[in-house]
Write a structure and sequence with these properties.
Receptor-associated Protein; flat; 10 helices
């Protein structure tokens, strides 16, 4: 009986000690987790501030304004413009980190700027028309007054279309850069495959070694693959974003090589040779266009200067001879 009471007493003491130590341990663990959470939040905030400071000043100053103006337009604002703004931004590489909402804000900002310029310029136009109408040779200028509001509207419409025009130019320039760097990128991926790396490793090494719009697209595709998308789907999305025939052919070749069990190294080597041949033909085509493109500056600038240099002294001598009566 005494032994049983002693065991119960020891169990009761052990239970009290266990409850006290577990409560103390839980309190210590909670405080440590709270301190770690505070440190993590501080580190995240510091990293966000550092990342924001690394951005250009124009981007930091312009993005909040464009975001607010895009909020004024609303989520359905992209239906007011022609074409798919998402595809246009993808082709241009999202300059200044713009999304559709910010692009709509930029269009609204340009419209407001152009509208303000036309509004301030309207009184000056009226004054010029009134001055011209007082002269006999420009009396018909008074008929232009009713057209001034229409011209203001056209001016605002031009401002609304300028961001799209600049984005299309950026997209064309980016596609040219991708076309120029494609053979080198494919060659480096092929070398990585032939050196024993996997396809993902070879693409990762290429992204680290070469800085170009194509490697940016490849990096985005690799992030999509890491997020769970299939390789075929990620690369087809990249081809749809860039919309370049050479890249579409490359993606199709990679997809077929994976499905048919053909070595990716040999398939990419063949694609690299074809891309270099295409780039050589494209360079020859651009060189063949140069004489036609040089005609405009040749006619407008070089020929007049040559005529002045060659015929100028003759004209001066002819004028002197006509004044002295030596011509006849």
């Amino acid at each position: 009986m005494v032994f049983f009471v002693a065991i119960c007493w020891l169990g009761f003491v052990a239970m009290i000690i266990w409850s006290l130590t577990s409560a103390w341990g839980a309190r210590v663990m909670r405080s440590r987790l709270q301190s770690l959470a505070e440190v993590t939040e501080a580190e995240v905030a510091a990293a966000m501030v550092e990342e924001e400071e690394e951005q250009p000043f124009v981007e930091r100053a312009l993005q909040p304004i464009l975001r607010k103006l895009g909020g004024v337009v609303g989520k359905g604002g992209d239906k007011l413009v022609s074409g798919n703004l998402n595809e246009l931004l993808d082709s241009a590489g999202h300059p200044l980190g713009m999304q559709v909402n910010e692009l709509l804000g930029l269009k609204l900002l340009v419209v407001l700027v152009f509208g303000a310029i036309s509004l301030f310029a309207t009184p000056a136009v009226y004054i010029v028309i009134n001055i011209l109408a007082q002269k006999e040779t420009f009396q018909t200028a008074a008929k232009l007054k009713p057209l001034i509001p229409f011209l203001m509207l056209v001016f605002c419409m031009v401002g609304f279309s300028i961001p799209d025009f600049l984005l299309r130019r950026t997209a064309k320039k980016r596609i040219k850069q991708i076309k120029k760097s494609m053979p080198d990128v494919v060659d480096l991926i092929t070398l990585g495959l032939e050196a024993g790396l996997g396809f993902d490793g070879a693409v990762g090494q290429t992204i680290d070694k070469i800085q170009s719009p194509l490697t940016e697209e490849l990096a985005r595709s690799m992030r999509e693959i890491s997020a769970g998308q299939t390789r075929s789907g990620a690369f087809r999305s990249m081809a749809a974003r860039v919309r370049m025939p050479e890249l579409s052919l490359l993606v199709t070749a990679i997809d077929q090589a994976e499905k048919m069990g053909v070595g990716l190294g040999s398939a990419l080597r063949a694609q690299s040779d074809e891309l270099r041949e295409r780039r050589r033909l494209w360079a020859q085509e651009q060189a063949a266009k140069l004489p036609v493109k040089m005609l405009i500056p040749l006619i407008l600038f070089i020929f007049p200067a040559l005529f002045i240099v060659i015929l100028g002294p003759a004209c001066v001598q002819f004028a002197d001879m006509s004044k002295s009566g030596m011509m006849f």
